[in-house]
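Input record, target 12 of the design panel.
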C-alpha cells in the first residue's frame, strides 16, 4: 500500500501497520501505541462519503433505498442513531446519475432567518429526477462498499477489520424548501438534515452486533474511538496541542461494555463559520456572531413540539432562562476547545475559501 507521502508499505508487518496508522491519523505527532500483540490490533477501514444525509439510509429507516451492504454493517455492528458533523463543511461534489423509485419529499417553504440561496426545482418532475440521482449516488456508494467487504472476506481479513461508514455532513433535497446543506441559506443553517450523518461501526467479536446507540457522537469522538481500537494513545504534549473535545465511545459499544451512557455528554456542539450550535434531546440553540449578529439574532427551537424547526421561540418569556443556560454551556465548551486564530467569532478576519460563503453573502 502507498501512503499519502508516496512511501510503499508492506501491510504484513507490525511496523507497517503502525506507519499506516501514522499516515492516516497523524499519530506521528506524538501518539504511542499501547503494548498489545499485533494480531490483536485490527485493520481499520474508514469509508467517509460526501453529502450523505442520515435520512437517506435504509438502515436508518428510509425504505425507499436499497442498501444491503450498509444494512449488513448495521446488522452485524453498531449503528449510532445521533451522529452529527461538528463542523458542517461547505464542500460539494456532483452525484452519479441514475434512477430510483421513491415517494416525493413534501415540498416545504423555508421558514428560517435570512434568505434561501439553494432551492429545489419548482417543477415536480425535476424534483423527482434530482432526488432519483441523489438516491442513485447513495446506492452506488453501497455497491462499492460491498466490493470492499467482499475483498476483505476473500483475503481472510474481514474478521479482524474495524469498518466505519460515515459522511462529512448531511444534505437536503427539498426538506425545509431547500437544496444542499448548511450553505443553502444566508445566514447558514443547522437544520437536522444538514448536520445528521450516518455512522456505523463493525468489528466482529469486539463491537456488539445489531445494537443501536442513542447518545450523541461526532467525528471528534470517532477519531478518538479509532485510536482506541488501534491501541494508540497520544502523548500528553500532542493531546494538549490538539485539545480535542472528542472521547472514545468504544467502551460503550464494545462486547465487554461496562460503562453506562449516562456518563456520556447529553449535548452536541457544532460550529459553522460565524455561528455555533448546542443541541440537547429537547432543544437547539444557535448563536450568531458578526456580521450576522445582531441583525438576525439567536435562535432557539423546541424539538419536541417543533421537530421541523419552523418557530424560533427564543423571545418567549418562559424560554429565556433555558436559552441563557444553553448559551452558558456553549460558551464554556468553546472556551475550552476553540483555537483563537481560527475562531468563527471573527470570521471576516479569516481567509476566504470560496466566493459564496454564506456569512459574506449580501443580505
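The sequence produced for target 12 reads:
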Amino acid at each position: 500500500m502507498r501512503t499519502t507521502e508516496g512511501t510503499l508499505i508492506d501491510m504484513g508487518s507490525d511496523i507497517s501497520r503502525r506507519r499506516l496508522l501514522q499516515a492516516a491519523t497523524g499519530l506521528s505527532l506524538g501518539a504511542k501505541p499501547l503494548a498489545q500483540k499485533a494480531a490483536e490490533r485490527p485493520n481499520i477501514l474508514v469509508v467517509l462519503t460526501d453529502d450523505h444525509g442520515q435520512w437517506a439510509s435504509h438502515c436508518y429507516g428510509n425504505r425507499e433505498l436499497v442498501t444491503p451492504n450498509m444494512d449488513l454493517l448495521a446488522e452485524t455492528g453498531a449503528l449510532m442513531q445521533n451522529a452529527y458533523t461538528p463542523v458542517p463543511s461547505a464542500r460539494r461534489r456532483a452525484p452519479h446519475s441514475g434512477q430510483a423509485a421513491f415517494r416525493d419529499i413534501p415540498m416545504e417553504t423555508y421558514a428560517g432567518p435570512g434568505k434561501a440561496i439553494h432551492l429545489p426545482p419548482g417543477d415536480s418532475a425535476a424534483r423527482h429526477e434530482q432526488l432519483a440521482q441523489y438516491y442513485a449516488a447513495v446506492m452506488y456508494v453501497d455497491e462499492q462498499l460491498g466490493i470492499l467487504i467482499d475483498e476483505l472476506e476473500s483475503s481472510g481479513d474481514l474478521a479482524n477489520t474495524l469498518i466505519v461508514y460515515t459522511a462529512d455532513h448531511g444534505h437536503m433535497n427539498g426538506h425545509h424548501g431547500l437544496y444542499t446543506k448548511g450553505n443553502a441559506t444566508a445566514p447558514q443553517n443547522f437544520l437536522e438534515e444538514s448536520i445528521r450523518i450516518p455512522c456505523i461501526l463493525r468489528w466482529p467479536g469486539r463491537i456488539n452486533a445489531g445494537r443501536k446507540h442513542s447518545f450523541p457522537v461526532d467525528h471528534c469522538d470517532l477519531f478518538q474511538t479509532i485510536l482506541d481500537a488501534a491501541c494508540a494513545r497520544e502523548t500528553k504534549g500532542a493531546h494538549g496541542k490538539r485539545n480535542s473535545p472528542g472521547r472514545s465511545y468504544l467502551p460503550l459499544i464494545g462486547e465487554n461494555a461496562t460503562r453506562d451512557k449516562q456518563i456520556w455528554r447529553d449535548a452536541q456542539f457544532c460550529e459553522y463559520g460565524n455561528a455555533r450550535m448546542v443541541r440537547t434531546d429537547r432543544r437547539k440553540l444557535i448563536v450568531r456572531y458578526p456580521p450576522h449578529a445582531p441583525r438576525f439574532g439567536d435562535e432557539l427551537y423546541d424539538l419536541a413540539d417543533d421537530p421541523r424547526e419552523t418557530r424560533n421561540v427564543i423571545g418567549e418569556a418562559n424560554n429565556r432562562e433555558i436559552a441563557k443556560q444553553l448559551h452558558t454551556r456553549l460558551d464554556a465548551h468553546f472556551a475550552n476547545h476553540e483555537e483563537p486564530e481560527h475562531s468563527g467569532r471573527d470570521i471576516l478576519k479569516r481567509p476566504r475559501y470560496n466566493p459564496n460563503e454564506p456569512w459574506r453573502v449580501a443580505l
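The chain has two domains: 17-265, 267-363.
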